[in-house]
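Q: Fold this one first, please.
A: Sequence and structure below.
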Amino acid sequence: MLKSKKVFITVSVLFFMVMSVLFNPSKEEYIKFDENRSGVSMPEHARIAEADFIFFSIYASVPKNTVDEYGILHLGFLGLFFQLTDGQFDESIWHQFLK
């Protein structure tokens, strides 16, 4: 009985990991999502900052000629996008602890 539970949990975790990798959204999917959400196509003066972590990705719109300005941050996971911040002036939780 215990062995079958371990096998079930192992198979479930492996299945979830494979599905996460297969359905990790791409930059093109984020651009389509952003255009559908805002109703405006990506402006020429903007680029997409991306961090890909195999199982999920993080995307933000960024003006092309800046280093530390970011737009709304989204987490891409299993083909969906979740908003993490309200934009560049949204202070992160870890910054609050470092003060």
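Q: Good. Now the second chain.
A: Here it is, same layout.
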Amino acid sequence: MKKVILAVLLFSIPFILFSQEFTITLRKDLLLTDDYGTEYNYKKGDKFIYKIDKDGFGVSRDEPLRIKIYFDDSEGNRCDSQINDVSLEDYDYKMTDDIKNYYWIPSYYYTVSKEENVRNSLFRYEPYWKTFTFVAEDDPEWYEFFGIRRYFFGDFYFVVFGGYYYNDVDFFAYLEEVSDTRIVYNVQKMYSHFFDYKEELYYNQPDFLPLFEKETPFKIILTIDGDYMKMYIDEVSEGNLFQTLVRTTPEACNQLEEKILYQLNGPSESEEDSYMDYIYEPMAEEESDWSGDELPVSDVKITEDIQPTQEPVAVVEQTSNLLLIIILASAGVLLLVIVLVVVVARKKKKESNDLNI
């Protein structure tokens, strides 16, 4: 009899693990719609069940920080809301504002942007672009799908998104430790744009495939030093370092992405120089264990209920410099036109003299 009970328990373990549930609570009154289009009025404080193997969340490509999460009410109705409208019950740690109010991006993008051969430099860090193919009538170039990968950290989740081909990577993970220099997430589940990882799916971020295949739960440890963050898997060691990130704002990140795409399209050196003049601002000098390039850090922050500002902060702050650049560029173009006119006139005069001879 004991053997039978033991066998039943062992057989049940996978089902217990894979049916893990969490309780989430509404932070305000909401009108939500279920999978069949039926609307329900819920009150602040109402509780829902989040089933990690059934529900999920993901990033909207058009509005990346309006992250949608699915869950079930007490009667089994499956609804969804914005992730900032809910909180995870029984887990009290909250992400600090100096982390969640910014994007964090891999530091190598700044290195790539300053290399003479941007394409080869990018291939060193993201080699999968070398063999990337996309079959379509207009035969697009691989870099038309490129985008800087942005990390965004929340209270019980963090997401990685960017580009126009690979899906966002979404971590359902509660906080175990939060301080100014160290943050620890306990990862319960990973999603590829709402869905479980499947090997046959083509759109999983290549760098994250080892994590998708890793048994959960596991830990993500973030160590912070000024504007730099190192991301480790399970323990802080050189062998477990997954990524080095730097803090940036949404607008500055967009400008850096445009700059790299501009270089991938092959502009002239003079065009690159003039383009760079109004994109970057030097980072204030801070003591750090890691060396890094200039960071365009501004005062723009991400709030829970407001989308990142679309106002080009870095450009606005340097309007006078940009105006000067435009004036100088216009003068340069005018001078070039005058020189060309003079050259053409002299050439025609010489040809006329040769004919007369």
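Q: Anything worth noting on the second one?
A: The CA atoms of residues 60 and 67 lie 6 Å apart.
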